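In the design runs reported in the main text, the only information available to the sequence generator was the tokenized backbone. The following block is the verbatim input for one such run; it is reproduced so that readers can re-run the procedure and compare outputs position by position.
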């Protein structure tokens, strides 16, 4: 008997600042506290069934309202439509296919299912660029390309030089919702499995490090996300939020080389550093800062020069 392939997720993490998200607070101000329960239930349906979308039909609204004491199906539909208008879900997909999804939801789905043999998005529902679909599914089995159904077999080279992922319509409370906990678990697990016995020198990320390539030739060290995941902060008693720093650097699509420089210059995410103020500004900018890595580097470099 063939085993049924699971599509949805068993759980999704939620950020501690979920209720402070601007769109969520606007919804609460307009529709009341019931918004929180409705949004959480929507996300549960999204991640548990198909894993990255849910069909928003009349039965869906009735199901959502069944557990509410003071809201009916029409109230729930109105709140969900407002959530779409405020950018919590993709408006185009909602109008064209009557589904609730978003770029952040689809990123989270692919990240959470990266170790599955098959993790595909329906081409009609896919909101991600080809570069984001090309990450390896399982590091222990070699690199493979994750893609939408119907894509060609052409492989895509993804490096920090030719691809910069810039979050669009980033809302810190929602799908940092689904990023933080799982990313932290992955970072901790990889740190245990692949300890970095000889950390790179201090000046990497600030100036060029040459490596032997043939006869008397060198090139800039190319840092990968795997290199970053193997780093561990020193045990010197300084109060840090290193895991949170890594989560935010990935969330804003910062390249591994810039990540390394920011990690070292911020003393591995020491609490109270300039980098945390910069992260807050990035969250509030709604994607208007197009080079988040350089922006954060300018802050930590300025702070360092004034010390």
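Verbatim output:
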């Amino acid at each position: 008997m063939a085993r049924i392939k699971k599509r949805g997720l068993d759980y999704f993490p939620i950020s501690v600042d979920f209720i402070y998200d601007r769109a969520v607070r606007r919804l609460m101000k307009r529709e009341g506290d019931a918004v929180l329960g409705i949004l959480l239930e929507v996300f549960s349906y999204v991640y548990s069934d198909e894993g990255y979308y849910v069909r928003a039909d009349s039965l869906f609204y009735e199901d959502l309202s069944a557990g509410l004491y003071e809201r009916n199906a029409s109230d729930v539909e109105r709140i969900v439509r407002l959530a779409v208008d405020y950018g919590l879900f993709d408006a185009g997909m909602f109008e064209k296919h009557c589904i609730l999804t978003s770029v952040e939801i689809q990123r989270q789905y692919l990240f959470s299912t990266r170790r599955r043999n098959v993790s595909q998005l329906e081409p009609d529902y896919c909101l991600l660029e080809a570069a984001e679909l090309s990450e390896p599914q399982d590091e222990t089995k070699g690199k493979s390309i994750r893609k939408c159904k119907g894509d060609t077999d052409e492989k895509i080279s993804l490096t920090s030089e030719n691809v910069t992922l810039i979050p669009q319509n980033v809302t810190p409370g929602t799908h940092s919702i689904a990023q933080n906990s799982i990313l932290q678990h992955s970072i901790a697990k990889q740190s245990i499995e692949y300890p970095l016995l000889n950390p790179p020198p201090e000046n990497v990320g600030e100036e060029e490090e040459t490596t032997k390539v043939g006869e008397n030739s060198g090139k800039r060290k190319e840092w990968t996300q795997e290199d970053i995941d193997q780093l561990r902060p020193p045990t010197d008693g300084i109060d840090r939020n290193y895991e949170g720093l890594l989560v935010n650097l990935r969330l804003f699509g910062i390249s591994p080389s810039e990540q390394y420089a920011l990690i070292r210059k911020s003393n591995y995410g020491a609490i109270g550093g300039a980098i945390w103020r910069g992260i807050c500004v990035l969250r509030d900018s709604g994607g208007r800062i197009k080079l988040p890595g350089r922006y954060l580097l300018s802050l930590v470099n300025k702070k360092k020069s004034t010390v």
